[in-house]
Write a structure and sequence with these properties.
20% helix, 3-stranded antiparallel sheet, 66 residues, alpha+beta
């Protein structure tokens, strides 16, 4: 079995958890056989002292079809 990993950033205006979910949902639209997800880190965009966008940097693993 071979596994491939893609790294991407998900974003949300609500919270970090939704940023992770957004990354997974977007990936699942074009990638099959997703088997795992690692969160590498979080960041946020700030304006006027307030968070306006939550970001999650993730790695998503999926099985390569033979």
């Amino acid at each position: 079995m071979a596994v491939k990993i893609v790294e991407l950033v998900g974003a949300s205006t609500e919270n970090f958890g939704e940023a992770v979910e957004e990354a997974l949902e977007r990936t699942a639209k074009t990638v099959r056989n997703i088997s795992g997800l690692d969160v590498l880190g979080f960041s946020a965009k700030v304006e006027n002292g307030k968070i306006i966008e939550y970001r999650a940097n993730v790695k998503i693993a999926f099985k390569v079809e033979e």
